[in-house]
Amino acid sequence: MRIHIMGSAAAEGWPAVFCRCDACQRARARGGKSIRTRSGALVDGIYKFDWNSDSYMQALRDGIDLSEVRHIIYTHTHGDHFYPGELVYLRAPFAHDRLRLDIWGDHWAIEEVRQKVKEDALPDDALHTLEAFATYELDGARLVPLPAAHFPERGCFNYIFERGGKTLFYGQDSGWFPDAHWEAQRNHRFDVVILDCTSGPKNGGKYHGDFETVLRIKERMLAEGTATDKTLFIANHFSHNGGALHEEIVEFFRPHGVEVSYDGMVVEV
């Protein structure tokens, strides 16, 4: 399994688009891995987790051919994860000789896509409404949506994704997981776990992660056997409000065996 983290920031990006706080000014000056665009990931070249307004430029930056994507899997309809307007370019004259594209998400996401995109671009059988805890087959992969602690007005999914004998837990966005979420994990063993760390060293509250939440989740997964000492844990989805730049986040997590994401990061397991 090849996981390409195309964006590693929260909604506002980092440096945030209109912000002049110390964390944003330091990121502008330092550059490199402290420059973060909105969150999203590509798995094995054809499975795209979330599609936001930065996805096109991320692909150009990283040499990714988005015309090869066969499945878009939305976590939720917050704008930094969900940009359905781009899908209007699936039809001619904007796209020719394109591959079939299937869209997966909760009913909020699917209905909004259906309203924005004509059927000649996305037929109804390409739109898949997901239900929590069910298992779905996607071109040789298996997908299980789990309800996250995020966006209570509509909801948000984290995902268990299995392909080629490897299992990914994609945990954007969420605070501490609901009990039913934990229960549904128990029959799985994760090779890679990607966790929300929006607030960094500060308290993330109910609906986002932070340093402490990432470490608590790792500890519980290890205790319950859903992870092992070979599992790769990655903290992701950072906000400038946390204040810590990339190297500072790395320094915190180094003793705890957690990797820190950055834009363009590639992991192969």
User: Helix proportion of residues, in percent?
Assistant: 10-25%
Report the CATH C-level class: Alpha Beta
Mean pLDDT: 97
Element-by-element helix/strand order: EHEEHEEHEEEEEHEHEHEE
- Kindly identify the CATH topology: Metallo-beta-lactamase, Chain A
Termini Cα gap? 5 Å
Query: C-alpha Rg, in Å?
Result: 18 Å
Structural class: alpha/beta
At the fourth level of CATH, the homologous superfamily is: Ribonuclease Z/Hydroxyacylglutathione hydrolase-like
Task: Return residue spans where pLDDT drops below 50 for at least 5 consecutive residues.
Answer: none
Number of helices: 6
The side-by-side strand order for the widest beta sheet comes to: 6-5-4-3-2-1-14
Number of separate domains: 1
Q: What's the architecture, going by CATH?
A: 4-Layer Sandwich
Beta-strand residue percentage: 15-25%
Let me know the largest β-sheet: 7 strands, mixed
What's the number of extended β-strand segments?
A: 14
Please state the overall shape, judged from the principal axes of the Cα atoms: globular
